[in-house]
Amino acid sequence: MALDLSKVDVVEFLNELGMNNVRDEGKDVWYSCFSDQHYRGDANPSASMRKGDTAFYCFSCGMHGNAVSFLAELENVSPIQSAIWIKERFVGASVPAQSNVVDNVKEILSSKKATKTDGRLVVIDEVEATRRRIDWKSQEAWLAYSGDVRSKDDYAVEYMFKRGFQPDILDKFEIGWDKISQRISIPIRTPDGRLVGFKARAIDGLPRYIVLGGPEYGFEPYQTRKILFGLDKAEIDDEIIVCEGELNAIAMHQHGYTNTVGISGKIISDEQVELIKQHGDRVLLIFDEEEDAVNAAKKLRTSIITHIVPAHDKDPAEMDATELTWLLQSRKSSLLSLT
After folding, report:
1. Averaged over 226-253, what is the pLDDT?
2. Cα–Cα distance, 84 to 90 (Å, whole number)
3. SS3 state of residue 226
4. What is the pTM of this model?
5. Which of 161, 125, 123 is nearest to 141 (CA)?
6. Which residue has the higher pLDDT, 262 or 61?
């Protein structure tokens, strides 16, 4: 059975691989190119991937190919492994005999090899976090929550409070409001606390998350695959918990699981694997889908004791402390024998 790239949801594919500034434009989906040929990054997206066949092209650096070559270069794996991952995760069918995959990959791979970036995380002035911060304990914040809404950032306060987040945890993670994108802003920091960017969350509308940056901001978007969100604030003894998304990680901290970090999307990058290995002796994965946790565990289990939380109905940001404790303590499954 051939690998049918027409079944790949291009928006989902790019978002889950941590691409910045993904924008659905009908037949094509635009995103910021990850090639290192962009001197100042690619804040104004110059690359697009076509729906139907996943053909992509960067109009700035010329990088091109399709989903197979894209993922192979991004994750530094063989085209065969890339095709298998796409088959498992994005096409949703069982993997055929490898020879069939090999034959198909030969037909669909681009003749030009993509260029992978070794892009660095660039430190941003702390004033950027300060100007976006909300005083979550102020009288004005509580008035916003009570319904006396006067400005757009008051809607942000109402949204976060109604989702169950408390002022202390919102202050701890410096959650604020970005006036340019009109979204809730989440500062992104390196393990030693240096500010390198912002993730922005829509109150309503799509896409739910974007990475801030570009000429209008005065700083470039950070690379999501190089970050474990919350690692600078995590209290890790031996076990590190990894979940999907920034709000889920914040919710875990609020419920007392301060050894939690978050990834952007569903796929753990090589850089994130290294960070996990550096900071923990064992890892627990709590993903929205058990299949995604299993795929992530395959990248971790050879070098660190790895467990997953099996399938569950809610994500951490939707659970109360009792539900979360029951889930983590009574549904942990060892992956030490995973093949």
Report:
1. 95
2. 10
3. helix
4. 0.67
5. 161
6. 262
